[in-house]
Amino acid sequence: MCNDETPKLMKTVYCIQEKQLKTESDLQKLSKETCDKFTKVENDLVTIKKRTFRDDPNIGSYKQTENDIEKQIESKLGSVAADVEQLNKAVDSAKSLAAEQQDKENRQCNIILYEVPEST
Predict the structure, then answer these.
(1) For residue 38, with 0-12 CB atoms within 10 Å meaning exposed, 13-18 middle and 19 or more buried, which class applies?
(2) How far apart are CA 52 and CA 57, in angstroms?
(3) pLDDT value at residue 60
(4) What is the rounded distance in angstroms from the CA atom of residue 3 to the CA atom of residue 13?
(5) Residue 26, SS3?
(6) What confidence score (pLDDT) does residue 54 get?
């Protein structure tokens, strides 16, 4: 019984080995193709960068302009922050003046009695 199954088993093992070899070969081909494509993309990117810098001599000035714009924005934000702080101080001052005026108006109708002992 064991001898009858051995040729079938050997044939199955042989088929599996062939499929494995074919799969490994296909995988190597795919890996090589992928590597070649990535190399081509990298080369294209380098070529594009070279053309961009060669064709547009203002690339450096673009970066300088960007830095200038950032500095201007930062200075404007600083001045706006200072203005907001001044407005907050003005609002606080107005609130305290309004509270003082309200206190004066509340005390305006008070009657002051001299030489009368305070009640406890």
Answers:
(1) exposed
(2) 8
(3) 59
(4) 16
(5) helix
(6) 63
Confidence of residue 67 (pLDDT cuts 50, 70, 90): confident
Rounded CA-CA distance 83/89 in Å is: 10
Q: Name 59's Cβ contacts closer than 8 Å, sequence gap at least 6.
A: 52, 53
Residue whose entry in the numeric block shows the structure tokens 């088929």: 15
**The pLDDT of residue 2 is above 70:** no
* Cα-trace Rg, the chain: 44
- The 8 Å CB, 24+ separation contacts for 53-59 are none
Its pTM stands at 0.38
For residue 89, what are the CA distances in angstroms to 2, 19, 49?
Answer: 100, 82, 53
The letter for the amino acid at 32 is K
Rounded CA separation 6/36 (Å): 45
